[in-house]
Amino acid sequence: MGTAEPVITSYAKAPTKTITVGGITYAYRELGQKGGIPVVFFVHLAATLDNWDPRIIDPIAATRHVITFDQPGVGASTGTFPRQLDQAADQAYTFVTALGYSLIDIFSFSMGGMIVQDFVVKHPDMVRKLVLTGTGPRGGTGMDKVVGTTCWDLVRATLTRSDPKEFLFFNRNTTGKRAGTAFINRLKERTVDRDKNITLTAFRTQLKAIQRFGRSAPSDLSVITQPTLIANGDNDRMVPSVLSNDLHRRIAGSELIIYPDSGHGGIFQFHENFAPVAVKFLAP
Question: Where in the numbering of this chain does the AB hydrolase-1 domain appear (predicted)?
């Protein structure tokens, strides 16, 4: 008998795999003990596989099977990112079902949370538990301003030779700057098998898709009856923090956490507090 494949619980060491379906090759990583319901992670604007904070991923992977992936046209995945986020939800459904899963838990951040809302509305029986962080509802007030905020912070980051996420995700006070630097350093812990950066074309397509999402008619989120955990910082400049409260009101029975003195990346700034909460919430 062959020896069992070792269980990888460190995201920095999770190998990149691929699966091809419908002419598109999806790049993904998985870690944690396989078996049962996996936790599928949906990432933010401009992000690839390398943009997940290991201080969030690793604690969840200690007890759960975790899957992260690149949407089509992003990172190492082929194809094209679509013009509408509900189409991105369709692509995600294709990916998940190609892996053989009919029931999943979901962890999402920012744009990923927007895609996930469309995913759950379309496939409510496929999701057991849902985590929505740094995100807001379709048609949410101020959602379409993400384009202007992003472009402005890209300029500021370029002028200071910084990573844009230090401006977009964190407050520019002493606490926020320190948290931003620590977060960026954690993203560099993986030193081999790094993903490709997003292309400018895909980035622009995502920005426009978010803008359309923000300007479109609201979805009926009353159909989301799954246990739902919502979290954000109290000063989110990308997706206004008030929209997390909006989600909480519209999703019956949901839990809401708002972290003080933090921005869009509040869950990363407060990872020591948030990760155990997420682990407990996502418990089988």
Answer: 39-268
The number of angstroms, rounded, from the C-alpha of 28 to the middle of its chain's C-alpha atoms is: 14
Contact 127, 120 (CB under 8 A): yes
Encoded amino acid at 277, one letter: V
Write the DSSP assignment of 61-111 as a string of letters: HTTS-EEEEPPTTSTT--S---SSHHHHHHHHHHHHHHTT-S-EEEEEETH
Give just the sign of the alpha carbon dihedral 162, 237, 49, 55: positive
Cβ-based neighbours of 152, under 8 Å, separated by 6 or more: none
pTM: 0.95
| Residue 258 β-bridge partners | 232
Quick check: 2 pLDDT over 60?
Answer: no
Tokens at 281, concatenated: 């919430």
Mean pLDDT, the chain, whole residue set:
94
Q: What is the pLDDT of residue 1?
A: 43
Flag whether pLDDT at 3 surpasses 60: no
Give Cβ neighbours of residue 1 (< 8 Å, ≥ 6 apart).
none
Q: What does the pLDDT read at residue 228?
A: 98
**Band (6; pLDDT cuts 50, 70, 90):** confident
Q: Determine which helix (DSSP H) or strand (DSSP E) holds 231, and give its type and residue range.
A: strand 228-233
Beta-bridged to residue 255, according to DSSP, are 229
* Dihedral angle computed from the Cα positions of residues 235, 238, 244 and 245, in that order, rounded to the nearest 10 degrees: 60
Which CATH topology does 16-281 take? Rossmann fold (3.40.50)
| Contact indicator for 143, 244 with CB cutoff of 8 Å | no
Alpha-helical runs (H) found in 133-227 = 146-159, 164-168, 174-187, 200-215
